[in-house]
Amino acid sequence: MSAVRTRGGPAAGASPASAGHQLGVVNKSRFLPRTWRTWRELIPREEDVGSPGEETVEDLLGLVCSPHSPWALLEGSSAEDRFLRELAIQNPLMLKDTFFYSYFRSLHVVDKEVRLVDKDLLKFRNLEELVLSANQIQEVDAVNLPPTLKVLELYGNSVTSMACLCAHPPPGLQHLGLGHNKLLGPLQSHYVTREHWPHLVSLDLGFNDLTDLQGMVGSLSSLRHLRLLVLQGNPLALVPYYRGLTVDSLARLCVLDDITVSPSEKHQFRGISHSGDFLPREAQLLVMIGNVRGVLDSSILDPEPGPQGPFITYTYYVTYDFVEDEEGEGSELVGVLAEVAEIVKPSPSVEQLEAVPAEDIPGEHVPEEAEDVAESVPTTASQSGELESVVSGGSVALPRSTDSAEELAKLRPRIDPRLCPSPGTVLFSTVRKPWANVIPCNYEMQHTLRDLVPLKAFLLAGTTVTIVEEKILSWPLVAPPVDVPLPAKKGKGEKDKKEEKSRTGKDAKDKAAKGDTEAAKDSKNKKAKKAVEPKKSKTKMLALSAFESDYAPEPLTVEVQIQLSQCRSAEEAFRQVP
Known about the structure:
This protein is an alpha/beta fold. Among the domains are: 56-95, no CATH class; 96-279, Alpha-Beta Horseshoe (Leucine-rich repeat, LRR (right-handed beta-alpha superhelix)); 280-325 and 420-476 and 555-568, no CATH class. It has helices at residues 16-21, 36-41, 57-65, 79-90, 97-103, 213-220, 242-249, 263-268, 350-354, 405-410, 452-461, 494-550, 570-574, and strands at residues 106-108, 129-131, 151-153, 175-177, 202-204, 228-230, 255-256, 259-260, 283-293, 311-323, 332-335, 342-343, 388-389, 425-429, 438-449, 465-474, 557-564. The strands form 3 sheets. Strands 1-2-3-4-5-6-7-8 form an 8-stranded mixed beta sheet, with helices on one face. A 5-stranded mixed beta sheet has the order 12-14-10-16-13. The chain has a 4-stranded antiparallel beta sheet with strand order 11-15-9-17, with no helix packed on it. A hairpin with a 2-residue loop joins strand 7 and strand 8 (259-260). Residues 484-538 are annotated as: Disordered. This is Leucine-rich repeat-containing protein 43 isoform X2. Keywords: Leucine-rich repeat, Repeat.
């Protein structure tokens, strides 16, 4: 930091003349040597009249203090800024480098793209507070820090290890802020001991990638003066017993993660620290999906199916992606309710299917006795811009033949890319339900994960929840039966033939008489229908127009909750011990 500036003050190392020019007008008589003769000549006399080219000290102070002056202090300026400006007017000869380095006790250099802390910082002999937040610092050489420091803040930098600070730490440091950096690994707990920070009162390590809770609280317990601690935002804070173990291990702690530690809380978690090494180092999250509202009924737009099909069915379900545990055993999934969740595994895409034989595709089987019959295809259907519509699921066979693998591939389902999980995640779905005004999912799934760093990154990025409409077209496997007359038996005599003819003639006469009666009835019914039909069509048109004018679709919503499991007492934590 070759050019360090304080808030509102002149640059360190500025000359008296330059400081005076910042105020506008410089009176030369104020820079004369301090001898008795010069001081006697500066004593005002009643008969003397001030020179018209010079302002008095009172006039210059008025320009600095007036809010309407162009030299007025900026908003948010400190008392030190005001003092330095008045000092530059009243006694400008004091503004030298030695004065500045000994005067400042607080130095803030925020968001100035600082990369290195050099030895020039040691010139500030009385510096007690140093704030270097929101810069690009990756490592701090503690040798260049003033030994008088009591507060050191390095928020929002790129520090990856505390080892650089522990080489020669300021002995009297009381607050250390390293939040929102890149501290990673279990070894960081070795650098927060009494050996390095004997007088530390406040420590902020929030929003890093610290994972070893047991090792961290074990090292922090050696800090006798520690009263304020921030560890939230780290992967280690995702375990259910995080707060209980920290409170019971640090008996002198007053505030944890900006929440006061009460005596009742200490009593609830008493004794949990004795079994800290036996507690499982894993996080538990419960995903709950409730009701889905605002889904349009697509079946009202479909035509009535004929006897040959196709028969159309719609089902609806909700999908979400969740992080995959990369540690050996994978994620443990426990269904809480009776309804079992599904893990969605997308089928190969169309491009992949064209190059893969039908026999080699899992889930796709063509019977040997009907190799020319392909499976039916659930088609993609969309209701609105908000509703996700994809193709998935199996169905019965189509009454058509395919002569090549390419034609068979075209009939396979096409997977919407929005249903493909992102890298490192697994796609889960609720049970398929038919359409209703309110579709109840009643879904609960507990996820137990041991790899906490990817879990933290996943929670910060968020999950994607998708409402899926599945449309399936199906055709009957067997054609409807057709009546075929049986062949006449041999050996019938002439007598049988005559009886059959007489019976046929009699039936014909009966049918003719019956036909006349039915024809008369039909003519009467037709006349009645002609009188009624116009009224029915008019009523239907009026109802349809009223429906179109008053219809307001309900917004598409789905109830989703993700809860992080937390122990409320030591007894709950002990239940998790294997």
